[in-house]
Design a protein that fits this description.
It is built from three helices and nine strands; from the N terminus they run E-E-E-H-E-H-E-E-H-E-E-E. By secondary structure, it is an alpha+beta fold. The protein starts with a strand and ends in a 14-residue tail after the last strand.
Length: about 190
């Protein structure tokens, strides 16, 4: 049976177990042997990281052909216009690739949101907005590149859902073990 760990990665933690060069890594939080991240979050991103000891589960989560949805709460600089939101929804040309269509909606800051350390820099004359972004792919720094391309750089990024797994009840720096079948949509057999 596959082991699957959900971890709420704090800001600044590297998504690796070794070689942090003095920076916090997964090893500082997860005393579970032989598990590996199924996807990554940059050091400056927070939220749900899935780890597993099963290569089939890892492949099912990370391979874009499976279209497993990943949802993020994103604080952006400024207030995106309807045109900017439409570009995000339809796909954004980023030079080396064009993003797949995404589900985008404006939201209020999540009520469960924890304070970030260090806090996002406050600018009195520049408003911020929150977006909920759901992708079926996950290329390197994709969300940050998407919002920057439409003129609204990401200030804070929190992944809150991968498939059927969520951050619910999981404080930053904490983890829990779950059943692998919970992530995959109903009717799916789970890992191939």
């Amino acid at each position: 049976m596959a082991r699957v760990i959900l971890f709420n990665k704090p800001y600044g933690v590297l998504c690796q177990f070794t070689g942090g060069s003095g920076r916090a890594t997964l090893k500082d939080y997860l005393p579970v042997p032989d598990i590996y991240p199924a996807g990554r979050l940059d050091a400056d991103s927070e939220g749900l990281l899935v780890l597993t000891d099963d290569g089939r589960v890892q492949h099912r989560i990370t391979d874009p052909r499976h279209k497993l949805r990943k949802t993020y709460f994103v604080e952006t600089e400024g207030n995106p216009s309807a045109a900017a939101l439409a570009r995000l929804r339809s796909g954004v040309a980023l030079g080396d690739f064009t993003t797949q269509p995404a589900t985008i909606r404006t939201v209020q800051a999540p009520i469960w949101l924890w304070p970030r350390t260090p806090p996002v820099r406050f600018r009195r004359h520049i408003p911020t907005s929150w977006l909920e972004i759901t992708l079926t792919e996950g290329k390197n720094r994709q969300v940050r590149r998407m919002t920057a391309a439409v003129g609204h750089p990401t200030l804070r990024l929190i992944r809150c859902r991968v498939g059927g797994w969520t951050l619910e009840g999981l404080a930053p720096g904490h983890w829990r073990e779950v059943d692998a079948s919970d992530a995959f949509p109903h009717g799916s057999r789970g890992p191939d």
